[in-house]
Amino acid sequence: MDKFPSTIQFTGLNTPIRAEASVRDLVVEGEIPPEIQGAFFRAVPDPAHLPMFEDDIALNADGMIARFLFGDGHVDYDIRYVETARYLAEKKARKALFGKYRNPFTDDPSVEGVDRTVSNTTPIWHAGRLFMTKEDGRAYEVNPHTLETIGSWDYHGALKSQTMTAHARIDPETGEMFFFGYEADGLCSKEISYCIADKDGNLVSEQWFEAPYVSAMHDFVITEKYAIFPLFPTTADLDRIKAGGPHWAHQQDLESWVAVMPRYGKVEDIRWFKGRKGVSCFHLVNAFDDGDKIHMELCLSDTNAFPFMREAGGIHCDQSEIGGGLIRWTLDMSRNDDSIAEIPLGPPGDMPRLRDKDQGRPYESAWYLSMNPEGGPPLPGGPVGVAFNALLRIEPATGRLDMMPLGFGMGLNEPVHIPARDPDHEGWLMCVVDRQVDDNLFESELWIIDAGNVSQGAVAKVLLPIPMKAQVHGWWVPADQLAQARAGK
Ligand code: V55
Ligand code: FE
């Protein structure tokens, strides 16, 4: 291959940029609220080399860690590759050696046994350390000050699971981090690990249980009482993978499941609830206890949102035809049946953002990305292939919905939430907004939005002088926590 493929996975907002860069003193339009002091870390998949296969996908690209650093009226930007074992092996060879997404049988034989995770999904901050995560492997620790990679993270040798989710949940009161890993002991294993790290970052619990099928378990939720693991029927098959095929295929006629256990309990006490057939969900907003009931809010769709996961399962439909919405599932722990009650809360969308303090608790509002019916055709890019063009604020208890619609030719990436000092103020959201200016040419800005008043639009915009490739997830770290960080000391 002598050029990047001309598919959606490598064009539009997915156009490889590959530049490690630093820009100081970005130009700001409007006034950044002075209480915004800290770092907005972003995970950006960007292939360092031409891929081995023409049909490669954005989820398979090397992870870059980007940071917008806010302090004393200045905003600086940095982006660096996460130097995974895979990145370093390919850097040395000056070409791709790892083949298809999550298929080691397509790799160059020279890298057999080398950790093939790409750390491209979520920057996670816990106990003064920054991690870059990808659900097919362990996290990599990154120095939050220099963005240098420190190395693969195994909790000082304590972690047995070979994988760790990109969606950990941190309890706002105890400071514990709850997480899991699927395919915990190898490719296509049904083993799921469930782990707790204490507020100081020590692994204090790791238990394993078996899934009914190997599922692409992207996210999970906690409440004050429970840990809750939803499984949707996008499944892996070792024979298919050995034959060089795709890791995942969606199965429209298979049930979804929800595994529930006391969050400090034993995996032997797991109760399984049965969900609708064929549905798919990558992200949940939150979950909380309500007496004996558990409510959980999911960005649910009728089928898998990723075209290549649908097509591998023989499902052919247009992206715009997929139904779904923000849905509440309720499980009744006092009843002796495995059914799930369901009510709609909002229009289809994804990339939800919750205030950190609301994790696992009843909450008044949250935000997610959706489509503006008047925004014109969506910008091409991102892992699914189309960018969202509206930001929604929802109040699950009242049903109130507010929208920040974007105009024609614009798209946005997942926001982070920054709490305000004033307890009556909902805080701020910050997200990169892209605008198409020419054929395959985009300009981006970082928008700061009043979280309680999204329909008003941005209160300040940071102008970005270099192109931004589509982000996956982000994380906000306040300045005082950064200053106390261990790494780099
Ligand atoms: C997702 C993202 C991934 C992945 C699997 O958003 C699922 C869903 C960025 O990588 O590998
Ligand atoms: Fe995700």
Quick structural gist:
5% of the residues lie in helices and 39% in strands.
Q: What's the CATH architecture?
A: 6 Propeller
CATH homologous group name:
TolB, C-terminal domain
Give the total of beta strands. Answer: 33
Structural class designation: mainly beta
Distance between the termini: 43 Å
**Mind telling me the C-alpha Rg?**
21 Å
> What coarse outline follows from CA principal-axis ratios?
globular
3D architecture notes:
- The protein is mostly beta strands and 489 residues long.
- Helices cover 5% and strands 39% of the residues.
- The model has no long low-confidence stretch (mean pLDDT 97).
- The strands form 8 sheets. Strands 2, 28, 29, 30, 31 and 32 form a 6-stranded antiparallel beta sheet that branches.
- It has helices at 85-93, 238-242, 307-312, 479-483; strands at 21-23, 28-30, 38-45, 63-71, 74-81, 122-126, 129-133, 140-142, 149-152, 169-170, 177-182, 191-197, 203-210, 221-222, 226-231, 234-236, 248-250, 255-262, 271-277, 280-290, 293-301, 324-332, 341-346, 350-353, 366-370, 390-394, 401-405, 410-412, 416-418, 428-438, 441-450, 458-464, 474-478.
- The chain is built from 4 helices and 33 strands.
- The protein is globular, with a radius of gyration of 21 Å.
- Fe (iii) ion is lined by residues 121, 166-167, 218, 282-283, 473.
- Keywords: Dioxygenase, Iron, Metal-binding, Oxidoreductase.
- GO terms for molecular function: carotenoid dioxygenase activity; metal ion binding.
